Structures are given as structure tokens and as C-alpha cells.
UniProtKB/TrEMBL annotation:
<keyword id="KW-0460">Magnesium</keyword>
<comment type="subunit">
    <text>Homotetramer.</text>
</comment>
<dbReference type="GO" id="GO:0005986">
    <property type="term" value="P:sucrose biosynthetic process"/>
</dbReference>
<keyword id="KW-0479">Metal-binding</keyword>
<dbReference type="GO" id="GO:0042132">
    <property type="term" value="F:fructose 1,6-bisphosphate 1-phosphatase activity"/>
</dbReference>
<protein>
    <recommendedName>
        <fullName>fructose-bisphosphatase</fullName>
        <ecNumber>3.1.3.11</ecNumber>
    </recommendedName>
</protein>
<dbReference type="GO" id="GO:0006002">
    <property type="term" value="P:fructose 6-phosphate metabolic process"/>
</dbReference>
<dbReference type="InterPro" id="IPR033391">
    <property type="entry name" value="FBPase_N"/>
</dbReference>
<keyword id="KW-0378">Hydrolase</keyword>
<keyword id="KW-0119">Carbohydrate metabolism</keyword>
<dbReference type="GO" id="GO:0006094">
    <property type="term" value="P:gluconeogenesis"/>
</dbReference>
<dbReference type="InterPro" id="IPR000146">
    <property type="entry name" value="FBPase_class-1"/>
</dbReference>
<dbReference type="GO" id="GO:0006000">
    <property type="term" value="P:fructose metabolic process"/>
</dbReference>
<feature type="domain" description="Fructose-1-6-bisphosphatase class 1 C-terminal">
    <location>
        <begin position="258"/>
        <end position="387"/>
    </location>
</feature>
<feature type="signal peptide">
    <location>
        <begin position="1"/>
        <end position="20"/>
    </location>
</feature>
<dbReference type="Pfam" id="PF00316">
    <property type="entry name" value="FBPase"/>
</dbReference>
<keyword id="KW-0732">Signal</keyword>
């Protein structure tokens, strides 16, 4: 117990966190509206009123005291994001570019692991383990979910992709972390004196397999020209930018809303010839201006889900990684990529779909299950669904 207490104390001391990561309430939305967002450019000009993520959680806890137990979880997530941001920004200097172990390491997805894939996974996993609130952790880089020994009485399950878009690291293109938090579907208590230990552990691990509609929190942290942490707790979406001068995430995007329709589509068109015909016709209509909007869309594709979805969230349009002849289920993982991002977009007024069904409703059958994914503005996603229905 001592090492858990010390670990949690370190996290809280590091961030100066006094209170928690809660669902946004109508009362807290009023707080955001009443206090204007202040940028770092205003600092030094006198008294300022900066809403940091730490302060955001403190204010929100006042309205949601019953949710206070989640405070250490968000403290750990933002600490991990700060650390990963530092590692990414200094990767070329500290020899963290390139493949893990000389290119010989392959993860459970059959993908070559970058050095930062492994390090980022350890950073996030270790930060979350010390909260004492988690029973199970599932990661893209782990073959199976991991029981958190310090938190066997924990109430929550964390799922994450520690470094989405890591293939872009060597080119210094944006990457990101995606995470989701579920409540455990049932009590997860393991008696290590019992003979049926394996069965008890498996029951706990299977609590990871929950649909996106069961998420209680989700977010992403984008590492680019700035580090931006966007998250939702089920009642609105807020974005925070890391201010390197004070080492804190500062509220810069309160109550985020995706435009009803955009003018940008984000697909990997190198796979066009392998797509289903309805999708080909849909994209052709966007390019030629013969779709419902009558506007010609621009193509923007980074190859990092976090970067592409963040742009879609701000400017509208549609992001997609569809299934094709080579990969009928696409390449994005349902549990820790598609579902959390769908939750995020829906909280901003957007929509998500496989083309035929809402992603949030899908019951996962396996931790690394893949699913065709389309996210974005509600009118754009609705038009896509009509194309698939023809």
C-alpha cells in the first residue's frame, strides 16, 4: 500500500491537483461562460483570470462532489500527456526516432513498434496504475488487458492508444494519445487464495469489452505545433492547450461544437480502387461538387487519426477509414480508437458510423477488434449513410 500512496502523492504534488475530473454540469457551463478565456499573450499585463485544467476540475468538483474519486485519474492522464509531449518534441535530439530494438519488435497488431510506441505505453500505463481507481487497463500495445494489482477494488477500466500516428514521428508530423474510461460492468474482486484464480481474472478482464455508449469519459491529446488536450465527461466537450511557460493546460476551446457541415474530407485515397462502389461515388460527388451541398470539397489527410479528427472537429467535414477489399473491417480499433473518438464527436454535435450502424452501439467481441469508421459533421455523415443505403 505504501508504494501506491507515494505514487499518488507524487502525481498530485506534481500537478497541484486538489480536486477532480468530473462530468460537466450545467452549473459548470455557467462558470465557463462567466469567465473569458485568457491566452498566454495576456500574461504580464496585470491581473488575469486563467482557467487551467487543474482549476477546471476544482470548480467542477464543487458541482459534482460525488464524482471526486476520479480526480487522480485525470491528474495522471494530464501528467502522462505532458511527459509524452516532451518526449515527442525531443525525439530527434534524444535518439527516440526509428524502430524499437533495431526494427525487430512487432506488436499484437502485426505492426513494427517505434521506440516511442513502447515508451509512451509505459508512461501512460504507469501513470494510470498509481491512481488506485482502475481495475483493468487495455492498450493497443498490449496483447491482452492488464489487471492493475494496486487497484483490484478499482471502479474503472481505462483503454488507450498511447501514440496514434507514431509512423509520423521521424517526419515530425502530428501524433496523439487517445483514451477512454468505462465503469466496471460488475464487481471485480479477486481472491488469490481461491483455486479458480484464472476464471476470476478472466471475468475481470472481460469487463473491458463494453460498447462506446457505456463510456463515462474520453479524450485525446494532440502533439503538434502545440499540445492540445480535448476531453468529455458526457456533458460537453472542452479543449485545453499546454502553456509551456507555466506547465499547465489552459482552457482555449470551451464547449466545442463541430460545424453542421464542412468542406473537407479526410480519407486515404490511395485505397480508392479497393473501396466499395457506394463510397467511391460518395467521394467523387464531394470532389466534383455534385453532392447534397453543391460545394466542391478539399482533401486533407495527415495519416494520424488524432490530427485528422481534430481538424474535422474544428472546421467540419468528414473523416473516414473505411473497410476495403484488403481490410474489410478497416484498420481502426473499435475499443480504444473508434469508440472514444465517436463519443468525442457526438458530444460536439457530430455523428459517427460504420456506414450502416452507429459506432457507439457496437458490442466489442475482442480487445483489438477493428471497425470501418466515419466521423464528422452531422450533415456530412448523414449523406454518407444515404450513399451506403442505396
Amino acid at each position: 500500500m505504501m508504494h501506491k500512496s507515494l505514487g499518488l502523492a507524487f502525481v498530485m504534488a506534481y500537478l497541484g491537483v486538489a480536486s477532480g475530473f468530473m462530468r460537466t454540469s450545467p452549473g459548470f457551463n455557467a462558470i465557463i461562460k462567466a469567465r473569458p478565456v485568457v491566452t498566454v499573450l495576456d500574461m504580464g499585463a496585470g491581473d488575469v483570470d486563467i482557467m487551467t485544467l487543474t482549476r477546471f476540475m476544482i470548480e467542477n468538483t464543487k458541482s459534482n462532489p460525488d464524482q471526486q474519486e476520479m480526480e487522480s485519474m485525470m491528474a495522471s492522464i494530464q501528467m502522462a500527456c505532458k511527459k509524452i509531449s516532451s518526449l515527442v518534441s525531443r525525439a530527434g535530439i534524444t535518439d527516440l526516432t526509428g524502430m524499437q530494438a533495431g526494427g525487430g519488435s512487432i506488436n499484437v497488431q502485426g505492426e513494427e513498434q517505434k521506440k516511442l510506441d513502447v515508451i509512451s505505453n509505459d508512461v501512460l500505463k504507469n501513470a494510470l496504475r498509481c491512481t488506485g481507481k482502475l481495475g483493468v487497463i487495455a492498450s493497443e500495445e498490449e496483447e491482452s488487458p492488464v489487471l492493475v494489482e494496486e487497484g483490484l477494488m478499482g471502479k474503472y477500466v481505462a483503454v488507450f492508444d498511447p501514440l496514434d500516428g507514431s509512423s509520423n514521428i521521424d517526419a515530425a508530423i502530428s501524433t496523439g494519445t487517445i483514451f477512454g474510461i468505462f465503469e466496471e460492468a460488475g464487481e471485480c474482486v479477486i481472491d488469490y487464495d481461491e483455486d479458480n484464480l484464472d476464471e476470476e481474472e478472466m471475468q475481470c478482464l472481460m469487463q473491458t469489452l463494453q460498447p462506446g455508449k457505456s463510456l463515462v469519459a474520453a479524450g485525446y491529446c494532440m502533439y503538434s505545433s502545440s499540445t492540445i488536450l480535448v476531453f468529455t465527461m458526457g456533458n460537453g466537450l472542452h479543449g485545453f492547450t499546454l502553456d509551456p511557460q507555466i506547465g499547465e493546460f489552459v482552457l482555449t476551446h470551451p464547449n466545442m461544437r463541430v460545424p453542421k457541415r464542412g468542406k473537407i474530407y479526410s480519407f486515404n485515397e490511395a485505397n480508392y480502387n479497393d473501396w466499395d462502389e457506394p463510397l467511391q461515388k460518395y467521394v467523387d460527388a464531394l470532389k466534383t461538387g455534385t453532392g447534397e451541398s453543391g460545394e466542391r470539397y478539399s482533401s486533407r489527410y495527415i495519416g494520424s487519426m488524432v490530427g485528422d479528427v481534430h481538424r474535422t472537429l474544428l472546421y467540419g467535414g468528414i473523416f473516414g477509414y473505411p473497410g476495403d477489399k484488403k481490410n474489410p473491417n478497416g484498420k481502426l480499433r473499435l475499443l480504444y480508437e473508434a469508440a472514444p473518438m465517436s463519443f468525442i464527436l457526438e458530444q460536439a454535435g457530430g455523428r459517427s458510423t460504420t456506414g450502416t450502424e452507429r459506432i457507439m452501439d457496437i458490442e466489442p467481441k475482442a480487445v483489438h477488434q477493428r471497425v470501418p469508421t466515419f466521423l464528422g459533421s452531422p450533415d456530412d455523415v448523414a449523406e454518407l449513410e444515404k450513399a451506403f443505403a442505396k
